Amino acid sequence: RSKRKMMKRVILCEGRNDTNFLRELLTRKIFASEDKILFFDQDTRDNYDTLKLVQEACFRDFRNDWNSYEILAKSEGGKGKIIGVVASMLIHLCREKHYPIILIDLDGTCIEDFSKTLEDKLSNKFRGMGLQLESKHIATNEEATMWLMELSNNGGYMGNIHIIAFKKSLEEATGIENDHTDEQKKEVVKLYIGRTKIHQLFSEALK
After folding, report:
1. Burial class (CB in 10 A: 0-12, 13-18, 19+), 47
2. In the chain, is it the N or the C terminus that has fewer CB atoms within a 10 Å radius of its CB?
3. Dist. CA 92–CA 126, nearest whole Å
4. How far apart are CA 153 and CA 161, in angstroms?
């Protein structure tokens, strides 16, 4: 009997601290094997056209059946670029059942504002396909909150996007300082993951 393949999932985040956090979280708490996760940090200096080319190559590599990746954790070089550059891929990812998870810092703003901006971007970009979006709050813990955006097309379910947002920032929640070395950051993140229940939001989103 052939072994059932796990559904491939995509986690989009802001920067390198986020992908390092996800490496620790996914391997220590979600128990994903590191060789099943493709980590990719977008160069923040890339212009828009380069961003699009690199992004498409990265998604193409991840989706290929010949590799064994189950999760893509990709940083975009800022919250604005998640909406500005990746939005056009979100519908495609949902159609292929790679249901994306977006990890952001709210930096004191409201998750409703980010969700509304993303909804508007998707609605405008895919106006001709009868896209409908519905967002709702589904979970909150001390440092983060999670929303679910459900997508449908002429009444038919297309998929969903989870948004997990640190109420302030990943750095503030974990205690990462600007002058920390990579090893110090890793240790601080490891301690944070061990003492909190942040993994529960990701476990729920990855179901």
Report:
1. exposed
2. N
3. 11
4. 15
- Closest alpha carbon to 16 in 76, 91, 58: 76
Residue 195 CA, chain-centre distance (Å), reads 22
Sorted by sequence, the CB contacts under 8 Å of residue 53 that are 6+ apart come out as: none
C-alpha to C-alpha distances, 124 to 112, 118, 128, 130, nearest whole angstrom:
18, 10, 9, 11
Q: Which two tokens stand for residue 108?
A: 């004191």
CA atoms within 13 A on the CB side of 146: 20
Residue type at 97 in one-letter notation: K
Written as tens digits, the pLDDT of the chain (207 aa) is 333 356 899 999 999 999 999 999 999 999 889 999 999 887 666 666 666 777 778 888 888 878 889 999 999 887 877 877 677 789 989 999 999 999 999 998 999 999 999 999 999 988 888 899 999 999 999 899 999 999 998 879 999 999 999 999 999 999 999 999 999 999 999 999 999 999 999 999 998
Which string of DSSP letters, residue by residue, matches 30-98?
S---GGGEEEEE--TT--HHHHHHHHHHHHHHHH-TTS---EEEEE-SSHHHHHHTTHHHHHHHHHTT-
Q: How many CB atoms sit inside 10 A of residue 197's CB?
A: 13
* Crossing angle of helices 48-63 and 87-95, rounded to 10°: 10
Q: What is the pTM of this model?
A: 0.91
What is the rounded CA–CA span in Å between residue 87 and residue 121?
A: 7
